[in-house]
Amino acid sequence: MSGAEWASAQLVAAARDGHVESLTALVANTHPHVMRFAHSLCASRQDAEDAAQEAMLILFRKVGTLRSITALSSWMFRIVRNECLRRLRRPMWDELPDTGVTQSPEDEVIRHLEAERVARAIAALPDVQRRVLILRDVQGLPGRAVADSLGLSLAAMKSQLHRARANVQAML
Questions:
Q1: Apex CA 17: angle with CA 16 and CA 21, to 5°?
Q2: Fold that domain 1-96 belongs to in CATH
Q3: In whole angstroms, what is the distance from residue 107 CA to residue 149 CA?
Q4: For a FRET experiment, which of 1, 97, 98, 132 has its CA 20 to 30 Å from that of 77?
Q5: pTM, full prediction
Q6: Which fold has domain 101-172?
């Protein structure tokens, strides 16, 4: 889907020039597409809404840097993708206990590279497997809550979780 399907060239040009009504219309036209994409990438509804909101804020702040209307959709999708990946990685870092031991710069680089490998492997999973894995293993939700939030039976959720873990292990 191109940016032209989201908004006219005149609307984008007016928004770039600081016309408030045009910027408001551009954000309103773009929001449904961004939300749909965020829901397909992020693990939870909350993360998708937060990623879409962040993308809308970036559009609002930086629309003046947009070079052409055709770049709008790819620019917004890239922002959403990066925000979803950032949210995917965040819990792993936030939940690590402070052991009081300072790591060497080399250890931190290795830890960062490993986290990126895991994030890429998780991002490559099919949608349902990715969501189940993140909700269950990363966010620590109970199995019943994961199944209910995704509209799956408990047995189907467990099956998808098993497949997701096996796929991630195979990719690593």
A1: 85
A2: Rna Polymerase Sigma Factor; Chain: A (1.10.1740)
A3: 37
A4: 132
A5: 0.49
A6: Arc Repressor Mutant, subunit A (1.10.10)
